[in-house]
Amino acid sequence: MSKDKSSKDSSKKEKKEKRSEKDGVKKSKKDKKPKLDADKVAAEISKREEEGETEIAKIVVKDGELVLKPVGALVPFANPLADEKVAKKVLKGVKKAAKNKTLKRGVKEVVKALRKSPLGAPAASGSSIPGIVILAADISPMDVISHIPVLCEDHNVPYIFVTSRAELGAAGNTKRPTSVVMVSEKSGKKDEKPDEEFLDVYKDLLKVVEKEGRNVRI
């Protein structure tokens, strides 16, 4: 009885090995990806920045080594540029604004709103600004949006860059990639009022973007 059982187990094992070889799958401890060394990753990114590279990248493992794989070229003036954590908050704010109909999309609409806003410093944080401007950093040609940060500075409107125009478009509830949007606190219509949840999101977003933009100089 035990012989029959061991022969069956042996037969099953052989079948599994043959199937693995057939599918080109080889399981071994050596095939496991090495753990990412945080210090090594930070050093590599710092090196790329010092060399003036303006590409977003993701960390991949190739032949046991850490490699930065370019994803898309960024405009050289993408500053402040949201990191992954900040970008999540920014895109969340864009989604909420689209839902509450307080979002302006595209260069034409955003520039129009900026030019209508007063010049000079606002009386208090967020009290006299038309909204928060979010730009996509992977725009080509860069001249499409190069004048917008300057306009924002002139009118003291907070702004920030995100790495993907596709993600910005999706957050703004459109299938098309979007170069720039403006998140406003209120819609242009008197009878439409944003909900309390959105107002909290807007206030948090304003704080985050203002904090990121404190060291920016045009």
Automatic annotation (TrEMBL):
It holds the Pfam family Ribosomal_L7Ae. Its main location: nucleus. SUPFAM superfamilies: L30e-like (SSF55315). One of its GO terms (cellular component) is box H/ACA snoRNP complex. Residues 1-53 are annotated as: Disordered. GO terms for biological process: mRNA splicing, via spliceosome; ribosome biogenesis; snRNA pseudouridine synthesis. Gene3D superfamilies: 3.30.1330.30. It is found in: Nucleus, Nucleolus. Keywords: Nucleus, Ribonucleoprotein, RNA-binding. Transmembrane segments: none annotated. Residues 1-26, 34-50 have a biased composition (Basic and acidic residues). One of its GO terms (molecular function) is RNA binding. Residues 89-191 form the Ribosomal protein eL8/eL30/eS12/Gadd45 domain. Belongs to the eukaryotic ribosomal protein eL8 family. PANTHER family: RIBOSOMAL PROTEIN L7AE FAMILY MEMBER. Required for ribosome biogenesis. Part of a complex which catalyzes pseudouridylation of rRNA. This involves the isomerization of uridine such that the ribose is subsequently attached to C5, instead of the normal N1. Pseudouridine ('psi') residues may serve to stabilize the conformation of rRNAs. This is H/ACA ribonucleoprotein complex subunit 2. It comes from Lachnellula hyalina. The gene is NHP2.
